Amino acid sequence: MANRQQLSILLSLGQLMPWNEQTHTFFMQLLGDQTNPVERIAAAIACAFSAREATPPAVVQVLLEGFEQPSSVGEAFRALPYAEYDLHVCLSQAFRAIGLALAPVVVPTLLYALKRSDYFSALVLVDHLLYFALEGKTITSEMTAANLTEMQREVLWTLIEYEDLHCWKIFSPAVHLESLATTPK
Hints:
With 185 residues, the chain is an all-alpha fold. It folds into two domains: 1-98; 100-185, no CATH class. It has helices at 4-16, 21-33, 37-51, 57-66, 71-78, 87-98, 103-116, 119-133, 150-161, 177-180. Helix 1 runs parallel beside helix 3 and helix 3 (37-51) packs across helix 4. The longest helix is centred in the first third of the chain and has 15 residues, at 37-51. It is globular and about 50 Å long. The model is unreliable at 170-175 (pLDDT under 50).
C-alpha cells in the first residue's frame, strides 16, 4: 500500500504529466495494480487530470464508483495532504477535467454527492454541478425557463430546495434561479 505522501505525489503528477502513450500505460498499469479503494481512486483522479477528454472509460468507471464508497474511504482520502476538500469534490474536479461530454452521467451523481457533503464541499460541488448542467455557461438575466432543458431545471430546482445552501444565493450575481426553475419536478 502506498503511503499518504506517495498518493499525494501521484495526484500532483496527474496534473503535471502530459497525456501520451507512456502516461496512458503508466496510469492504466497503476490502476490495474491497485486493490485498495483509496489508491484506485487516487490513480483514477490522477489519470483524469492528465488525460482530460481522452480519459479511458475504465477510469471514468472507477471515478463513478468512488461516489459509492463507504465513509471510511472518504475519510482516508481526506487525510491525504493533497485533499483540500472531501472525496466527492476531488472526484468532481476530475470529472470537470474530463469535460462536458460526461454531463448526463455526472449530473445525477453530483446531485447525490451534494446531499451527502458538508457545507464547504457543497459550495464547490454547486459550482461543478452548474458547470455540467449549464454546459459551461453562466447564469444570466436573459435566461428563461423556456431556454433550459429538463435536467437544467431539475438541477436549479434542487439547489433552490437545498436548505444548507440558502446563504450562497446572496453571493450569486444572478439570483433569479427560482424563476429559471419554474417547472418543479
